[in-house]
Amino acid sequence: MMNEKSIRMKQAILQRKSVRTYMDKLLTQMDEEKVKHYLAQQDNGKGPFGNRVKIVLQSAISVEGQKIFGTYGVIRNAPAYLIAQCSPKRYALIDCGYVFERLVLFLESNRLGTCWLGGTFERHKVKVELIDDDWIIPIVSPVGYTREKRTLQDMMMRQMAKSHMRKSIDELFVCGPNKKIIQDESCREECEYLRWAPSASNQQPWRVWFCDDLVHFFVKRTKGYGKALPFDIQMVDMGIILAHYQAIHPGSVYEILEDIPLWEGCEYIASSRVSKEVDA
Ligand SMILES: Cc1cc2nc3c(=O)[nH]c(=O)nc-3n(C[C@H](O)[C@H](O)[C@H](O)COP(=O)(O)O)c2cc1C
Fold first, then answer.
1. In a domain? residue 280
2. Domain shared by 27 and 59, yes or no
3. Which of 13, 18, 126 should be mutated for ligand 1, with most atoms under 8 A from CB?
4. Quick check: is 279 in a domain?
């Protein structure tokens, strides 16, 4: 039986959209406390592969009244930002994607808008103390109240990334030993909650293979994509899909298995055993 949290997460998945235009309004004290309380929970800062991801909430304006976050005009009026830091290693970035998307869905279910930013923010301007010298800030996100009327730049960004669309279920998901198209209706419904995940430039690099009692997650890279960034952004995308799978199967655990058959053009990431669902 599906629990209440799982239902809320499913709604949040289908409702969430990147918000780049905000109302000119500070976070209420209650909302700020809610976010801080969420971030203070140790479990909310740990990914399925055991890596820590530290996220802090910062006001968008300094005490001197200066704008702290540069987003090249992409984000308008956000009152605050969430800043994530983690190790740049492969599975730490996956954990970062997982942890941050769970936060995004939590905020969405509390009517707070967000927008993943991995490229269009001025990284050097972000001031947080790093946990470790080799840690990085892969992602930030504005957080605030959505303004329905979008700026022109916002509309253009959505149009460029075709954000209102996703690849078809048959392109992203397969089943059985011979990687056939999925026919089962309940499995196809599940895929809807996966394919509406956000991804950098809406590249949707995730490929998912349902095989017997295992679900395997692969990445199909966009050649050359993200090369200018100091980290592997498509690993962050992979963490996001794992967060969506976890949201609809709250008991799931991820394992990196050996001897998983190849999927041409893809790299293996991890698998989950189809298990009895537990209340999260
Ligand atoms: C890892 C990651 C990085 C992203 N970086 C940016 C960014 O730098 N600038 C931006 O405007 N949008 C960014 N996005 C938002 C995507 O463009 C957006 O999620 C995608 O187009 C799908 O649209 P939707 O989120 O409204 O469903 C990023 C998304 C992800 C997941």
1. no
2. yes
3. 18
4. no
The contacts of residue 99 (CB under 8 Å, 6+ apart) are: 44, 45, 46, 47, 53, 55, 84, 239, 243
Tell me: the pLDDT tens digits for 88-107? Answer: 999 999 999 999 999 999 99
CA of 162 from ligand 1 middle (Å) equals 11
CATH number, domain with residue 199: 3.40.109.30
C-alpha of residue 157 to centroid of ligand 1, in Å: 9
Residues with CB under 6 A from ligand 1: 17-18, 74, 115-120, 157, 161, 163, 198-202, 233, 236-237, 240
Tell me what pLDDT residue 275 has. Answer: 66
Q: The tokens of 11 are what?
A: 């709604």
In a domain, 137, yes or no: yes
Q: What pLDDT, in 10s, does the model give residues 75-85?
A: 999 999 999 99
Mutate to test the pocket of ligand 1, among 122, 167, 199, 234 (most ligand atoms within 8 A of CB): 199
Say how far apart CA 270 and CA 152 lie, in whole Å: 40
Does this model's pTM top 0.90?
Answer: yes
Domain boundary among the residues 136, 155, 174 is at: 155
Whats the size of the chain, residue-wise? Answer: 280
Cα–Cα–Cα angle for 201, 134, 60, nearest 5°? Answer: 55
**CA-nearest residue, atom 22 of ligand 1:** 163
- 3-state DSSP call for residue 174? strand
Domain count along the chain: 2
Q: Which residue is associated with the tokens 């909430």?
A: 57
